Amino acid sequence: MDADIIVVGAGLAGLVAASEAADAGRSVLVLDQEPEQSVGGQAHWSLGGLFFVDSPEQRRMGIRDSSDLAHQDWMGSAQFDRECDYWPRQWAEAYLDFAAGEKRSWLRGMGHRVIPIVGWAERGDGRAEGHGNSVPRFHITWGTGPGLVAPFERRCREHARSGRLRFAFRHRVEALVKTGGAVTGVRGDVLRPDLTRRGTASNRDVVGGFEYSAQAVVVTSGGIGANHDLVRENWPERLGTPPKTMVSGVPAHVDGRMLRTARTAGANVINPDRMWHYVEGIRNWDPIWDNHGIRILPGPSSLWLDSDGVRLPGPNYPGCDTLGTLGHLRRTGHEYSWFVLTQKVIEKEFALSGSEQNPDLTGKDFKLLASRAFSKGAPGPIEDFKKHGEDFVVAEDLEDLVDGMNRVGDPGREIDVVRLRKLMEDRDRELANPYGKDAQLTMARSHRKHLGDRILRTAPPHAFLDRRNGPLIAVRLNILTRKTLGGLETDLLGRCLDVQGDPIAGLYAAGEVNGFGGGGMMGYNALEGTFLGGCLFSGRAAGRAAADAVV
Which residues make beta-bridge pairs with 331? Predict the structure, then answer.
């Protein structure tokens, strides 16, 4: 045996699984096709948001959360309705217990911290029993994605120095080796070394081969977000037709290769049509990978228009129902949409997903973080996009704004300035009273009762056509690929199951490759903060179970 346990993938789930197995005294070999500088995978690029239930941070902000409310929100979002949802449902129940229980203390024991203001992501479809978070639950890691990866990488590096764990980068697994029906190792190609910077595409030049044996293999290889052909192949009818163009929210190596490899070895893949793609993608003016898209994390005030300039119907408001809005746009034939807003809105409500777009949080810079809340102007990365981003239009008056929108939009998709002016005048007229019939304004007023929104995320309602609140801003929003919600079916020990539902001896999975648990513990929708949390929970379960099975 080359190791007790082989972990395929050095992203967050892989690091968690490897560190847990090594802590249990097992020898671990971690393989990854990317260079060493890409340790941490997609988690490195994340905002580091985590889903906690009834946390001290929530309670300090006056947020009344509970396990019952979280369960209501999760199940209303997941909408489990398939025979194959047995294990995803079991994983969901177990994860909710984890998020309301030891998750926070477990992380804090490794030095993990979150900022004290709890965010309100995925605010929902407007129904108590439906999709969305009833209360704020989005806890941002102090240090963002790198800050969440760090304690697990540190644990793995310590085990590497002791000789218990070994990394083998530029090792691409092409097959799982089976002996007598059990998975007993892996086989693949050694790729030429590459010094490319993190996130950029590395070479695929084969310089050799390898075969390693172990008592258990844990697959933690991620999803399919960079493979747009595979995204379109699995695109569900309920979300309309697949987009012709998308921007990539993940690096090129997130290609779904190991899903095919594991399936070839007999593992069952379920819910491949469940996926999570954003509708607020902007093209990165300073890209790291090809076709690099960044997601806007919006507050609730921007007017949201389709590519013809028609206001989206409720509850398709900013920050509310990701897949509901995606489905509306695709069923009505729109490849992109628009935010229309003011400088006051962008200063208060725009944030960008990604560790590199949040230097204050990533760099743990208190002074810079305070300036986000109390200084004039939008944060520096937002202003950079305003200045350089090809999807941004800035103008002092509506006529010039619409001229710019029509230059940035696709041919044949013209915005009519008269219609847009009437829409904005109608909206502004609703501000004469502290109540009214515009549901989006009512929501914004309500959400400002949450301290976090009032401080950081929701601008006071104001007239968009009042020049004192300008300039006016329009942002073209592209569909951005991101997460796989289905994948390898696993039981609560992380053991991969075959098509008959029986465990495959020696084969485990964790992270996005198994829908973050069970083959899709989030069902049809996600509540945010659950992707990284799913990597933590499933990686821990698979690493511990694989270690326990070693004889």
Answer: none
- CATH architecture of the domain covering 3-221+485-549: 3-Layer(bba) Sandwich (3.50)
Which tokens belong to 206?
A: 């084969």
Kindly report the pTM of this predicted structure.
0.97
The answer to whether residues 234 and 483 touch, using CB atoms and an 8 Å cutoff, is no
Nearest to 165 by CA among 100, 214, 95: 214
DSSP string, 152-164: HHHHHHHHHHHTS
What distance in Å separates the CA atoms of residue 151 and residue 142, rounded to the nearest whole number?
A: 13
Per the listing, tokens 């929701």 go with: 458
Percent of the chain beyond pLDDT 70? 100
Has residue 372 got a pLDDT over 80? no
Each residue of 337-360: pLDDT tens digit? Answer: 999 999 999 999 999 999 999 999
Whole-number pLDDT of residue 461: 96
CA-CA distances (angstroms) from residue 417 to 110, 403, 420, 470?
55, 9, 5, 17
- Can you tell me the mean pLDDT for 118-123? 96
Read off the DSSP letter of residue 141. B
Domain ranges of the chain: 3-221+485-549, 277-480
Q: How is residue 134 written in tokens?
A: 């009833």
Residues 475 and 352 sit within 8 Å (Cβ to Cβ): no
Q: What is the pLDDT of residue 385?
A: 97
Segment holding 46, helix H or strand E: none
pLDDT for position 368: 87
CA–CA separation, 241 vs 221, rounded Å?
28
Q: How far apart are CA 334 and CA 326, in angstroms?
A: 9
